[in-house]
Automatic annotation (TrEMBL):
This is Aspartate aminotransferase. It comes from Capsicum baccatum (Peruvian pepper). Its cofactor is pyridoxal 5'-phosphate. Residues 30-377 form the Aminotransferase class I/classII large domain. It is an enzyme of class 2 (transferase).
Amino acid sequence: MGWWDHVLLAPKDPITSVTEAFLSDQSPFKLNLGVGAYRDDKGKPVILECVRRAAEKISCCEILESTKATTKSKFVQDCVKLAYGNHSNVVGEGRFAGVPALSGTGACRLFAEFQKRFYPDSQMFLPMPTWSNHHDIWRDSQVCTRTYRYYDPNSKGLQFQALMNDIKNAPGRSFFLLHPCAHNPTGVDPNYEQWKEISHIFKIKNHFPFFDMAYQGIASGDLERDATAIRIFLEDGHLLGCAQSFSKSMGLYGHRVGCVSIVSRDEKQATAIKSQLQQIVRAMYSSSPVHGPLLVSTILNDADLKALWEEEVKFMVDRLIRMRITLRRTLEELNSSASWEHITKQVGMFYFSGLSPEEVHQLQRDFHIYMTIDGRIRVRRNGCKIGSLREYLPHLVSK
Ligand code: PLP
């Protein structure tokens, strides 16, 4: 047997394979609703004005010199203030350990590695469904995953009681991954009172909450409001972990900017945790790039740029909401007896349609419309293509 002869083709990733299939489709009418990135009316990526201005403020020297520890700890400090609140005790008392990460994915992966290292027999409970890569990240870090009930396909909403039961019935001191806002793929989030109850039961069971916050600002258009779940847990005195990403909220997809942080008991524990996180990073890729973190810190520390960012986030979210309203109205005009209310109740970048895998295949084959196999559609504007959905949907609607 020759070297590598035993290497077989890896299974396709359920999200990136949608784009691959889309690219190989020759139809001029094809439409990609699979990719999880915000786009303008022409389907092009958006560069935020606050990012353009921040880029102008950063000098070449800063980028070249900034392997400096101070740039990184400043960035981490800025990130945790954004997630935990400017006036959070955790920040004031230095009770957090954090490192820059290769965006949200890298932040999750670092936490999974850390979990494996210090709780080798632990499991990670993931919501059902969740972003498909969560399963792969914890699997590759050799942490077993289990699921807890979250979304109810019948009501197209949260299965709150089942979720509470699963949290209650999990062994005490379990790790749980929570989406603090704009749950991917369902767009269904617990409300304030429900988060309070979840936090309460976590306290009773002494579970460890790990928040994967890939969409801060993208649920409500308000960065503070979207951090409510984390703030509730902090108020209740939990120790917690948090992955942050600036892919969506600042449009920095290609820069891979993120942060992983862990709230600790005291400063001494934070120092120890940070040193271990740094050691994991060191052996994996030594250190992360600095241009992205510099962009983020520049925006967060300049009052005008920060205000501009907040406005731009709000603009994106208002536009997503308008597109949801249009989609719902378009479907309602088909006079179906089905309810489409869930389209405007869900939040964030995705509409979780409830289409079956067969229906997703049919849309792809007959109408060149691409989405993930679970029926997740990225909300986007494209009037003429709504025409082809119109042709397709009467059949669906009358089911
Ligand atoms: N977490 C969730 C829930 C996501 O939906 C995503 C992206 O789709 C990520 C993490 C990772 O995003 P990125 O690595 O681009 O920051």
